[in-house]
Amino acid sequence: MLAEQKPDTQLVAKLAQLKAILANKQELVAHLALVDNDAGHGFANVMAELSEFHQSGIRVNQVKLTPASVTLRGEALHAELVPQWLTGFEDASFLVGMRFADFSIHTNDDNITVFNVSTTASPESK
Could you list the pLDDT tens digit for every one of the 126 residues in the chain? Predict the structure, then answer.
């Protein structure tokens, strides 16, 4: 009698879908928690530390992290706020072994001050 029963095709399809969703979420969690063995920081740790450096008048729109670099792009109410904000990063643990490689700030066509800051690994940290 048990051998005659067949699995419900809708339930089998739903199970496969849930397994795929779970696998995607596990991959995302693994990516977000990825720890660079040299710097010891994952995305979540960097974002938490960045929030500690929040400054009124600065809005970070994009954060790009790789094991060898950090790039921050955003907007500022006034151009002079950006260097002041960056000064606070002297003690940022996610920048240990990094040096600022690129810094640009300008006013775009909409009269908004935009900035781009990126780092690279210091030669002595390699």
Answer: 666 788 889 999 999 999 999 988 887 777 666 544 444 457 777 888 888 888 889 999 998 888 788 899 999 999 999 998 888 887 788 787 788 889 999 999 988 999 999 988 776 654
Structural domain boundaries in the chain: 38-125
What tokens appear for 50 in the block? Answer: 């960045």
Q: Which of 59, 61, 108, 53 is nearest to 86 (CA)?
A: 53
Is the domain spanning 38-125 CATH 3.40.50.2000? The answer is no
Helix axis angle for 43-52 and 9-32, nearest 10°, is 50
> How many Å apart are CA 51 and CA 105, to the nearest integer?
21
* SS3 state at 70: strand
This prediction has a pTM of 0.62
